[in-house]
Amino acid sequence: MGKKSIDPYVRAPVVALHDAGLNQVDISKQLKVSRCCVQNAIKKYKQLGRFDDLQHTGRPKKLSGREIRHLKRLVKGDSRLSASKIASDLNTSIPKSITTRTIRRYLKDLSFEYVVKIKKQWLSARHRQQRIAWCKQYLNWAKDDWRKVTFSDESTFYVLKRKNQCEIWRLDKEKLLPECLQQTNTGDGGKIGIWGGISGFGTTIAKIYTENMNGQLYCNILQTELKRSMAKFPKKTKIIYQQDLAPWHTLGMVKEKITKLKLNVLDWAPKSPDLNPIEMLWSIVDKKLASKP
C-alpha cells in the first residue's frame, strides 16, 4: 500500500518555518506532525517548487493510441468482429496479452454498442436503381394526381392464435378467470385474409376470405369487388390501380384480367418500402386484435 500524500495546507507552514530557520524537530513539535512528515514536505517542495502534488496519471493504458486505432479498424466495416475474435487477432499482432473484457471496456469507451443487427430486406444494386427510377418518375406528381390512385393490398390476421402476448393487471388469485386468459386454438387460429383498397375518393369494398390467396381468387376480386367499387368513383376521373409485386399479382391470368378490365396500373418497383397508405390501416387492425383478451 502506498504512502498517503501530505496535504498542501500541512506542507505550507512546514516550509515557511523551515525557511525561517527552525530545524525539523522544532517544526515537528510546533505543528504536531511527525518528523518524517516534515522531512517529506521539505523534500517535495524542493523537488516540485509547489505545495501540491503533480496530477496523478493513474494506471497505464493497456493499449497504445496506434493499437486503439487498429482496434477500431477491426470492429468497423463489413467484418464487425466479436470482442473475443478481436482479442484473438490483437494478441497475434501485438506483444502483450489482451483479454476479451479489456476489448469490451475499450469499445464501450469508444461509444460502440453490442446490439442485435436490425433486420432489413436485402436489396441488390438493381433493386436500388429501380427504386430511384420510380421516385424520379413520380417526383412531380401533385396531390390531385395521387388522389386518383387506388392503393390496394392483402393482409392476413390471426383472430385467436396470435404470437403476441396480451398483458393485463390482475391479482394472483385471478389468473384463471376467463377475462384474465388469452384464448388459444389448436387449429389455424381463426386465420382470415382481407383485401381492400383506399383512394382520395373513398374506400373499396373489402373482401374477406379464409383460403390462401391465389391467382384465381385475385381475379375474382378484381372482377367483383374492385369493379363494383370503382363504379362508385367519379365517372370522368381516370382511376389508377396500385398493387405490389406479390406472386399472384404477376401471373399471366391476372395480367389478362387487368387488360380485360382496362385497368390503369401504377408502376411499382420490386421490394419497395411499405409506402402504401393502406398499411397504416392494417396496423390499426392488428393493434386492435393484439389488445383483445
UniProtKB/TrEMBL annotation:
Domain Tc1-like transposase DDE intervals: 149-291
Residue intervals of the Transposase Tc1-like domain: 69-140
Domain of life: Eukaryota
GO BP annotation list: DNA integration; DNA transposition
GO molecular function list: DNA binding
PANTHER family cross-referenced by the UniProt entry: SI:DKEY-77F5.3, TRANSPOSABLE ELEMENT-RELATED
Protein name: Transposase
Biological source species: Rotaria socialis
